[in-house]
Design goal:
Largest interface: A-B, 92 and 100 residues
Shape of chain B: globular
Number of helices of chain A: 17
Radius of gyration of chain B: 21 Å
CATH class of the domain at 21-150 and 277-312 in chain A: Alpha Beta
Helix content of chain B: 25-40%
Oligomer: heterodimer
Shape of chain A: globular
Structural class of chain B: alpha/beta
Structural class of chain A: alpha/beta
CATH topology of the domain at 21-150 and 277-312 in chain A: FAD/NAD(P)-binding domain
CATH topology of the largest domain in chain B: FAD/NAD(P)-binding domain
Distance between the termini of chain A: 23 Å
CATH superfamily of the domain at 21-150 and 277-312 in chain A: FAD/NAD(P)-binding domain
Strand order of the largest sheet of chain B: 6-2-1-10-18-17
Largest sheet of chain B: 6 strands, mixed
CATH class of the largest domain in chain B: Alpha Beta
Strand content of chain B: 25-35%
Number of strands of chain B: 18
Bound molecules: flavin-adenine dinucleotide
Largest sheet of chain A: 7 strands, mixed
Distance between the termini of chain B: 49 Å
């Protein structure tokens, strides 16, 4: 009945490849925290690999990956050589790390961490998966340090889905690292340290800063920074919010505030908050915990992996970031319309998200239209991944970077719970969108090819029912099973 | 709405619905497991007037049923003609979109693949199911993403694919609309028997009285049925898929081959799986995790070979699901002798596509004691009577390192 004799040639066995290199220490992210970790490791005589995805490829920036660039980068970002130069120029410690003996790979992203554990035991060892502009590969590690920083938090409002709406981290990256910001006059949303610092940086770089909009009654950040902004003659619009961004072909041209003020700007900077970049931890099934004072979801304890810098959580200054962003989300929600877009990639509106409706290329018969978040909640606690699958919010090419957090906020509000009562939708590898040809293993080992079957390779499975237990059964089995190893 | 090359069904699905209405009135059915098999059975039974409760340990469709390739072309199965009869009508009958699309193309990029596809085409044509052979040029005309490396293929004039997550939810919602109950986050922990029947099912949310019980809990069927003294040989394994950003829609989205199964979704994404699986231990509480692996890279390569014109597309996600396998890879759909009001249903890895038909067969076993529309005798559990305790070992189906999986 079976011809396997104790072996299954189509099972994973030992087919997953060994990493092509191995280091005592692999550090992901070459910001200050990652550089310090790499330098310390090299100083202890460890073999060290330090990777950083900067300079970000132009195509990724265009998809708002990994930051919310909002289409406001200059053509200079398309020049790979120049970009590499700016990265080196802006971070002198990179050379120090190299001098200390660390291998430094720029323009290289880490898109997955794979470990043996529950549900998977076939890996020859734990690996981190990397990709640059030419190829993908795996490296083994003794210790893994994640220093992946923090990324922009986006909260939608009418007109946010057009070029010229960007994030503070992206603006900082374009101004300070790449010298490639295409905007002229900008308006900030938020007045906590992130907004204040980025506004001052922009002003310092000669950008015209039209002001900072704040939903609360007073500026939220550090008093010295607030003074600095005031003395730079940058106005605060307090007790106010962005009601709408209007624009043309090139994106934002003006902004209307809730108070009625009209402000001509070509860029709106979402500077309400940053979220720690926990993609890799979350995608590998690691632990994450919610800590409002440290920027939302942050890594929990994960054996063998250390998180340093802002990816481990923002500095705790006693400010509740989550409460603050929920307040913004509530106000911007009031100013939004049912057809305000939440997920830009998949064009999911607020109404469709909260109605748990399918995308607009599908029909909505009456029973479908009658469903909503409320009917879903009646069946049990709402699950963000389930809602994602049904509405497609977060399923697009930006991998949910622009909407994952605001979807969690909106669902929590709709369910009358605090942030976190509907958890954040999970991340999946590859945590960067990567072309098939880059991701592909073009050097696949022979046993992977030889043992490949479309499904399980069980010889009896595809025998037509009427031929079971007849002489034809064996004929089919031989013919089909011999064809296996496709 | 029938397919080219399949016999015209004797009855429309709409007429079937009318015919079965009220046939199970007053019957209380408890279904263990809210995957496609359990939900479809629940829907068919509710259509028959039964009072249906589906209990799931988590969310409906969270296991294999919401993580699969969406394929629905199972010519080998006795349920095939029913699968083909029902699918094109499911959106209308359920009242919710399933994204069902008709037909399938399977295309080859090696001689070995082409030979195998030709064999399968002939096997189908011998059964009277029409499959057309295609040259490389014909494939390129029909499949805009195919490349010069394509050697030819075959065109199933039947079959198709649907969106697993949407379909699962459609069954669940349609069942509720008929008055059925779905209780999520409520694992079944035991059964109460009396006089050769299960009279109640015990679950985290309470005790549910039953006239009949359907056990459709995927790999967990083995442990649940053991509580009733019935041995159901099943082995769990993990399989993986990846998906790209959308590509322009191809005229037929159900294109696979090159050792892959999968489809272009209605949104345009290319979603494919295939290649090696990992055998796993089964846990009563369900799988502790469903991780994907670097196999993502091998899948990416296969897709890039299948569709050279899509090689620039970004891969945006990967995932894995846990599959239930019987020793011969064929479903078990059977009503027990003792306790005699229990039906066991597991599809051995092809349960998504079969679901509109498996639900009908399960309904028939629950209500009438036998399947009304086809012979499913060879899918009975008794074919495994006396199978040795070492059946997994004999097949090489043991987990690699059991200790780590715990
Ligand atoms: C990657 C992948 C690709 C696939 N591709 C295809 C394809 O293209 N076409 C196809 O037809 N099939 C495909 N399959 C197989 C198909 O998904 C399964 O055969 C089918 O979903 C099985 O459905 P089910 O309802 O029988 O089981 P499951 O989906 O496993 O559902 C069982 C349910 O029972 C619940 N449960 C378990 N224990 C308990 C308990 N004690 N109490 C209460 N509830 C419990 C579980 O939570 C689960 O929801 C694929 C599977 C995978 C993973």
């Amino acid at each position: 009945m079976h011809s396997n004799n104790g072996t299954d040639p189509h099972a994973i066995g030992t087919k997953l490849p060994a990493p092509e290199a191995r280091y005592d220490l692999v550090v992901i992210g070459a910001g200050p925290a990652g550089l310090a970790a790499a330098l310390a490791g090299a100083g202890e005589g460890k073999s060290v690999l330090l990777v950083d995805e900067n300079p970000i490829p132009g195509a990724a920036m265009g998809n708002d990956v990994p930051l919310l660039f909002g289409g406001r980068m200059t053509a200079a970002t398309q020049n790979a050589e120049r970009m590499l130069e700016t990265v080196f120029m802006s971070e002198p410690m990179l050379e120090a790390a190299m001098d200390a003996g660390a291998e430094v790979l720029l323009g290289t992203s880490a898109w997955g961490v794979y470990r043996n554990g529950p549900g998977i035991t076939g890996l020859p060892e734990n690996v981190v998966a990397l990709a640059d502009k030419d190829r993908g590969w795996l490296v083994g590690y003794g210790e893994l340090v994640l220093a992946t920083g923090a990324r922009d938090l986006a909260i939608g409002f009418p007109g946010w889905n057009q070029p010229g709406v960007m994030g503070a981290a992206a603006l900082e990256r374009l101004l300070a690292r790449y010298e490639a910001f295409a905007g002229k006059r900008v308006l900030f949303m938020g007045s906590h340290d992130l907004a204040l610092q980025t506004a001052l940086l922009a002003r310092g770089k000669g950008v015209d800063v039209a002001g900072l909009v704040e939903v609360r009654a007073s500026p939220q950040g550090d008093a010295a920074l607030v003074d600095a902004v005031r003395s730079a003659q940058i106005p605060f619009y307090l007790n106010d919010a962005v009601a709408e961004a209007k624009g043309g072909l090139d994106g934002v041209e003006s902004v209307r505030l809730r108070s009625g003020a009209m402000i001509d700007v070509d860029t709106v900077v979402l500077a309400i908050g940053l979220v720690p970049s926990i993609e890799l931890i979350d995608a590998m099934g690691g632990k994450r915990v919610l800590d409002g004072a440290r920027g939302g979801y942050i890594p929990g304890e994960n054996a063998g992996i250390t998180c340093v810098g802002t990816c481990a959580g923002l500095a705790d200054t006693g400010f509740d970031h989550v409460e603050y962003r929920m307040e913004w989300a509530r106000e911007l929600g009031k100013l939004s319309a049912p057809d305000t877009i939440v997920c830009q990639c998949e064009e999911v509106t607020r109404a469709d998200l909260l109605g748990v409706q399918p995308p607009n290329y599908l029909e909505r018969p009456a029973p479908m239209a009658a469903r909503s978040l409320d009917t879903l909640i009646a069946d049990g606690p709402p699950n963000p991944d389930q809602i994602k699958r049904l509405t497609r919010a977060g399923m697009g090419v930006c991998q949910g970077r622009r909407c994952r957090d605001q979807v969690a906020m909106m669902l929590a509000m709709a369910a009358n719970g605090p942030f976190g009562s509907v958890p954040l939708a999970t991340h999946r590898a590859p945590v960067r969108p990567l072309p098939l040809r880059i991701l592909a293993d073009w050097e696949e080992a022979e046993d992977m090819r030889a043992g490949w079957d479309v499904w399980f390779g069980i010889p009896t499975q595809w025998v037509p029912y009427q031929d079971i237990d007849t002489p034809r059964e064996r004929e089919h089995q031989t013919a089909i099973a011999d064809g296996w190893s496709l | 709405m029938t397919y080219v090359g399949l016999p015209t069904p004797a009855e429309t699905p709409q007429d079937t619905m009318v015919r079965i209405a009220g046939t199970a009135a007053k019957m209380k059915v408890v279904i263990v497991g809210g995957g496609v098999s359990g939900l479809s059975a629940g829907w068919w039974l509710a259509r028959s007037g039964a009072s249906v409760t589906v209990l799931d340990k988590g969310i409906v469709g969270w296991e294999a049923s919401g993580r699969n390739g969406g394929g629905a072309s199972h010519y080998q199965s006795p349920l095939f003609l029913e699968e083909q009869r029902m699918w094109p009508h499911m959106d209308e009958l359920l009242g919710y979109p399933t994204e069902h699309q008709k037909e399938r193309l399977v295309i080859a990029v090696t001689e070995k693949q082409l030979n195998q596809y030709h064999y399968l085409a002939k096997m189908n044509n011998d059964m009277g199911y029409r499959v057309d052979l295609l040259t490389g040029d014909q494939v390129r005309a029909m499949v805009p993403l195919a490349g010069e490396n394509c050697l030819g293929g075959m065109h199933y004039r039947f079959g198709g694919h649907a969106n697993p997550q949407r379909s699962v939810q459609a069954y669940a919602w349609a069942l509720q609309d008929l008055g059925g109950r779905i209780v999520q986050h409520s694992p079944v922990t035991g059964f109460e028997t009396e006089g050769g029947k299960v009279v109640a099912v015990h679950s985290a949310s309470g005790r549910y009285e039953a006239d009949a019980v359907v056990v459709a809990a995927g790999p967990q069927i083995q442990g649940l049925m053991a509580k009733l003294g019935v041995e159901v040989p099943l082995a769990a394994a993990r399989a993986e898929m990846i998906v790209t950003e959308p590509a322009p829609l191809m005229p037929i989205g159900g294109v696979d081959g090159n050792g892959l199964y999968g489809r272009q979704t209605l949104r345009g994404n290319l979603a494919y799986g295939g290649g090696p699986h990992e055998w796993l231990q089964t846990f009563e509480a369900g799988p502790p995790a469903r991780p994907s692996s670097p196999l993502t890279r091998n899948l990416a390569r296969r897709i890039a070979e299948l569709f050279p014109k899509a090689e620039h597309l970004n891969v945006i996600r990967s995932w894995a699901g846990i599959i239930e396998n019987t020793p011969d890879g064929r479903p078990i759909i059977d009503r027990m002798k003792d306790p005699e009001n229990v039906v066991v249903a597991t599809m051995s890895g092809v349960g998504f596509g079969l679901s509109p038909a498996s639900g009908h067969a399960i309904r028939d076993l629950v209500v009438d004691g036998q399947c009304s529309f086809t012979d499913i005798g060879k899918l009975s559990l008794s074919r495994f009577d006396g199978i040795g305790a070492d059946w997994r070992e004999q097949r090489g189906w043991l987990p690699l390192k059991a200790d780590l999986a715990a």
